[in-house]
Design goal:
By secondary structure, the chain is α/β, with parallel strands linked by helices. It is built from 13 helices and 8 strands. An 8-stranded parallel beta barrel has the order 1-2-3-4-5-6-7-8, surrounded by 8 helices. Helix 1 packs antiparallel against helix 12, helix 5 runs parallel beside helix 6 and helix 8 runs parallel beside helix 9.
Length: 308
């Protein structure tokens, strides 16, 4: 299977050196990752903000092996929060965090992740912005939603991500469709077993629409995370059906993908948020995305050929 091979490659220093040195690598990385340094990501934020878009920033670093790395990731997000505050970008930029980067997968990981992410959420609130908890594979869902519940008790603007391909997600959407709840709905990128997730693309798409209907009919704030033109059109139609104004939901897409579509949605008056990953762990990020679902490889290659 290609997935295990790519995961092994993600952890191989020798393969990292080869891939990093390849002439074709840098254009791909520059297309999808907003640089390795914080200042580069801030330049991308300003550029997108000038074009009427909002952003969510992801500091790369979820593949950690010890608590010290979790603390370094916490500190990186605190630096990011300070930069957003200093530049007055809090209203245009939020942050996305993977709890694995804060130690969720380590021994005692639930408590460790909550301890490490809490000061980031506190700092974000002080800076006039917020945090969305990215969702990872199905084994982390209960822990992530429990941490979300604890954070929302103090910071109700904290967002969550739900993945439509999991059988449980419709119920999770109902639980999170209340007033003030911010939910990004995605199809899901991890390779999940048939015992917990739909395997057929058509079933995943149908589940996405069912989940989006629940969120749009609720009192929360839906965030439509999809590059699929059909899902974007359905999102617009559901917004109209449920009487939502353009400011009462938003679309989200990855940095460097379907840029013309991002511009179109902004021109039509929709809120468009771009997911910007940055940091030195771009290699691990890219390889893990391919390993989670090798079909992503064709998706990224197609996106490299055309920016539309």
């Amino acid at each position: 299977m290609l997935g295990p091979v790519l995961l092994a490659a993600a952890r191989s220093d020798s393969i990292r050196r080869v891939v990093s040195a390849a002439p074709v690598t840098r254009p791909v990385v520059d297309r999808f990752v907003a640089g390795e340094r914080l200042d580069a990501s801030m330049a991308a934020v300003r550029s997108l903000a000038d074009r009427g878009m909002e952003v969510t920033l992801d500091h790369l670093g979820e593949d950690i092996t010890d608590p010290a790395e979790a603390l370094r990731n916490r500190d990186a997000y605190l630096q990011l929060t300070a930069a957003l505050k200093d530049l007055g970008l809090g209203e245009r930029a939020e942050m996305s965090v993977k709890l694995s980067a804060f130690g969720q997968a380590l021994p005692g990981g639930h408590e460790l992740a909550l301890k490490n992410v809490t000061p980031v959420v506190e700092a974000a609130a002080e800076a006039g912005t917020t945090v969305t908890l990215d969702m990872e594979d199905h084994t982390t869902v209960d822990s992530t939603l429990a941490i979300l519940g604890e954070l929302r008790a103090r910071f109700p603007q904290t967002g969550a991500v739900l993945q439509s391909y999991l059988f449980r997600t419709e119920d999770d959407c109902r639980a999170l469709a209340g007033e003030g709840s911010r939910v990004r709905l995605v199809k899901g990128a991890y390779k999940e077993p048939a015992t917990v997730a739909f395997q057929d693309k058509r079933e995943v798409d149908k589940a996405y629409v069912r989940c989006l209907k629940i969120l749009m009919a609720g009192e929360g704030y839906p965030m439509i995370g999809s590059h699929d033109p059909r899902m974007v059109a359905i999102g617009q139609e559901l917004g109209r059906r449920f009487g939502r104004k353009p400011a009462e939901y938003e679309f989200q897409m990855l940095y460097g993908i379907r840029e013309a579509e991002q511009e179109r949605l902004v021109t039509e008056g929709h809120r468009m948020r771009v997911y910007i990953p940055y940091g030195t762990d771009w290699y691990g990020y890219f390889m893990r995305r391919l390993a989670e679902r090798p079909a992503n490889l064709a998706f990224f290659l197609r996106s490299l050929v055309t920016k539309s």
